[in-house]
Amino acid sequence: MIIAEKTAVSNRDVRKKIYTMIIPICMENVLQMLAGFISTAMIGWTGALAVSAMGLSMRITQIVWALFKGIATGGTVFVAQAYGAQEHKKLKHVIQQTLLSSVLFVIVIQQLIYWKADFFISWFNADGELLEKSLVYLKTVSFGLPFLAIMLVVAGVLQGMGNTKTPMKIALMMNLVNICASYVLIFGKLGFPVLGIAGAAVGTAFAQFVGAGIGLYVLFNKDGVLSGLLNLSFLTLNRQKIQDIYKMGMPTAFESIFWQICTIILTRLILKFGVESLAAHQLGLQAEAISYMPAAGFSIAATAFIGQAIGSKDPDLGKKYMTEIVKGSIVLTSFSVAILLLIPGKVMGLLTNDVGVIELGIKYLMLMAVVQIPQNVAGVLNGALRGAGFTKVPMIVAGTGLWLVRLPFAYILSLKFGLNIIGVWLAMTFDLAFRFVLSFALYKRKNIYQYMTFKKEVMKL
């Protein structure tokens, strides 16, 4: 069978298509960042203890996020390839199986976290009021986890088809709900009692419920990709298809879970240096999102566009996509790096009024600013590898960096050399630089464009 030669696509057209996709993703990430920033600031103004309690609880919920982000990524890869090949029946089947299996899976996990919250928080050796506040936050926010999983799947499949405006709109509505509800409940406005950290958890869970509801409507309304499929047949699980999706997505999930487990271990270490250090670390992570959350859109775009290029058997188009995506990531990150380097004190001052926490947070932001460009370019390279189906490579990169660089150096520098929390942050910068080098080397070695060319030649036989 001979395939007709594809019409060449100009660099201008490629650039337009990329930014049509990326701008909504970046806006969505900025919205997520701002909502998290504002919510964290509201908690931060109630005290360092509340921030620390939220930070401990989030280490658990982020593992759940990582798991379902991985599953959603598996769906994104298959959706992108089916979309690129114009296989609409396969496209719908992938979405249906990803969504249904995720809902059933996350309900089990939510129940486990709710009833065993004390077990999970015990990982951090927290006690007293810190333990009490952490349990309240974790149990309450667990009710939002099923809705979080739905939103991840909805966003993943829509992005796989190149639709990034809809997830952005959902994020806008969800984050507005989160900010308003959290403000009312944390500080006891409009006749509600002052709930403090519990109010933040309720606001988050309620916002996720709203976001999931909108996402399901988008999929199942008369113009949605799953229009007419909401019936008893929708509840049928296809074991083989689910296995394929999860097999593709699990390396991405484990990549993120590695990070979360490493963070739990680091959090235990950071607690040795006091609540102030933990609060500075937590707030620093939130402030650093100014850089990596907007740039994360380029990684998602790389996954989607490389997946579509593979589906359409067009390696030249894949190369054009990557050139423009890497350039864009560097330019955007450069602006955020300038913010972290030039006004770190003002950024931290928005999150808390604790002088000691601000002084420590400034050091964190300046260290992280140095490695933002390598971190975000590595994210693009790994996104391209996922789109090509090499989802194990980013997992190997993350595992190697975290377990062989970040953790060992964190303990050595903080405890053996007496650098305390600064030693942990230095280890993080070493890890990010190492992972950039390793990601680049493996990206060149895999040569995904040759892989596309090979598949194209096979189709000609």
TrEMBL record:
Transmembrane ranges, per UniProt, are 21-43, 63-85, 97-115, 135-158, 170-188, 194-220, 248-271, 291-310, 330-352, 364-381, 393-413, 419-443
Choose any GO biological process term that the UniProt entry carries and state it: monoatomic ion transport
Q: Which InterPro entries match?
A: MATE_fam, MATE_MdtK, MdtK-like
Tell me the membrane topology, using the record's own terms. Multi-pass membrane protein
Q: Which domain of life is it from?
A: Bacteria
Q: Which cellular component, as a GO term, is one annotated location? A: plasma membrane
The compartments listed are: Cell membrane
Classification via Pfam families: MatE (PF01554)
Give UniProt keywords alphabetically: Antiport, Cell membrane, Ion transport, Membrane, Transmembrane, Transmembrane helix, Transport
Molecular function in Gene Ontology: antiporter activity; xenobiotic transmembrane transporter activity
Q: Sum up the protein's function in the record's words.
A: Multidrug efflux pump.
Recorded hits in PANTHER family, A to Z, give: FMN_FAD EXPORTER YEEO-RELATED, MULTIDRUG RESISTANCE PROTEIN NORM-RELATED
| Family, similarity comment | Belongs to the multi antimicrobial extrusion (MATE) (TC 2.A.66.1) family.
Mind telling me what this protein is named?
Answer: Probable multidrug resistance protein NorM
Organism this protein belongs to: Anaerosolibacter carboniphilus
